[in-house]
Amino acid sequence: MARGDAPQDSYHLVGISFFILGLGTLLPWNFFITAIPYFQGRLAGANTTTTTGTLDSNHTGPADAFNFNNWVTLLSQLPLLLFTLLNSFLYQCVPETVRILGSLLAILLLFALTAALVKVDMSPGPFFSITMASVWFINSFCAVLQGSLFGQLGTMPSTYSTLFLSGQGLAGIFAALAMLMSMASGVDAQTSALGYFITPCVGIFMSIVCYLSLPHLEFARYYLAKKPSQAPGQELETKAELLQSDEKNGIPNSPQKVALTLDLDAEKEPELEPEEPQKPGKPSVFIVFQKIWLTALCLVLVFTVTLSVFPAITAMVTSSTSPGKWSRFFNPICCFLLFNIMDWVGRSLTSYFLWPDEDSRLLPLLVGLRILFVPLFMLCHVPERSRLPILFPQDAYFITFMLLFAVSNGYLMSLTMCLAPRQVLPHEREVAGTLMTFFLALGLSCGAAFSFLFKALL
User: For domain 11-457, which CATH number applies: 1.20.1250.20, 3.90.226.10, 3.30.470.10, 2.60.40.2890?
Assistant: First the structure.
């Protein structure tokens, strides 16, 4: 809640700014994976009719010779794992303003480069190398940016963390809708692709303007000026507390931010948890891990399964119907848009119930059952295959699998993050948060690595 002597957020400008900043942090990842057909077209080689690629999802044959969708997933998630390990060093040595503004400017320049490459004729090899380098650096800066902004949110009223996370939750849906509008615009493939990649540049530029405006807004100055000196681990506990109100509306679909839900239940039983000294004793990492290892393993497995097939395999699924409007829009709608919407729905369900509870052995069973989605998607209508047959050619199969896949991903991920704090003592939640953040990043990276194996088995 806002303090009694706090100024008012005139015209909700601070709230709007944090909403746009949240949107900007996840636009790069979502715009890259949604544009996989464009990149596959550029990498198809000299036998294609254009070197600019297309946003359509009907590429076959050599279009994915570079395993682009696998590499873009892996090189997007490895920076998260790296900066999870380097957080303490980075946050102590680099000023917050440099981290946030520098990251935004770097992301803008790199995305401008991606947009400019649409107009540049280039052979597949150099184009692939430049694109992969851009993916790595963009997601590295996004990891730094996101952690830094959550640090600022730790000083704001909880409603502002809700707005920030809502902006992040819309990033995937926004990217899918931008893809659909580009495809439906009726312009040539090059202009369509250029317009698509300029869109996130505008979003990042707006994020820069919003961040620069915060020091000039009295409401933002009031809270940001009172920011305590905290280590990254201490910030995590404060930031996670802010998500109490967000859980009522559903946590948006960002794998990078989900670790901040760890202290979701911290305020539910205040009468049972009397206030303790700030540091009642340094908790043991090993003891905390012993308490949460099963929940952490479930979190790793949830994201390993998800990233092993999405988008590496699911982006290759095409409609089995005859060529037409439906087959053209099938993958952007049924893969990316449907996943983002239903994943958000799954996360929202934890606002109403938490089942199974932390003492139940059903959670590992439910998480383990998601492994079945790997063969199910691999046996869908993916034309580029040499080993496995197609057992589920109809579009209805893929849509059904995607609905269950996305809802279960959102729900089980959110559930594990809600149950973790119940398994440790109050003063151990900081360590538990750090551990779960690491296992989150580990699951994402493992899933991206496994995607190469599953792609090779097709």
Answer: 1.20.1250.20
